[in-house]
Every structure is written in C-alpha cells, then in structure tokens.
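re: ur question from yesterday

yeah so i grabbed the chain u mentioned. its 93 aa long if i counted rite. heres the sequnce exactly as i have it in my notes:
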Amino acid sequence: MRQLEEVVLELEELEAIRLADGEGLYQEQAARLMGISRQTFANILDSAHRKLAEALLRGKALRIERQAAGSPPVPASWHGDLTPTQSNKETSA
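ran it thru and got these structure tokens back, copy pasting raw so excuse formatting
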C-alpha cells in the first residue's frame, strides 16, 4: 500500500464544519457558540472546506489535529456529535 500525502484539519476547523454543515447553523450563530467573530468563523470554515476538497479530490489522507502544543484548552461546548439539534430556520425564528 502506498503512503498517502496528508491534509491536516485543525480542531477548530472540524468544529466549524460540525456547526455549519452538520448542525445547519448560520455563521453568526456558530461564531457566537465558538466565541469568535463571524468573519473569523467564515475564514476558518473556508479553510476547512478547502482542506476537505483537497483531500477528497486529490486522494489525500485527512488527519485531524486534536490540539497544538501550547494552545489554549478547547472549550467544552466544542465537544459534541453530528446529530443536528435544530435547523438554521428553527434557530432563527
């Protein structure tokens, strides 16, 4: 078996994917949950989408980085599953 090149997805990128794509939240709502600005959330989500596309379209392995050494702890609110709780339309009502 050949060694695959890797694309590294940071934990914050995975969380952005979970909130936006998995739970269907608007960027403003997701950013609030992560404690960051909407623009920062959009940048993280864009980076995550590009990395996922690269891995899928170029046949690269996807590795998820848990947390870089010296990084602040991940907020407990970031831990969850991909089970949608409410759709974006329900949460905006």
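noticed a couple things. Residues 42 and 83 are 22 Å apart (CA to CA). also The chain is about 50% helix and 10% strand.
anyway ttyl
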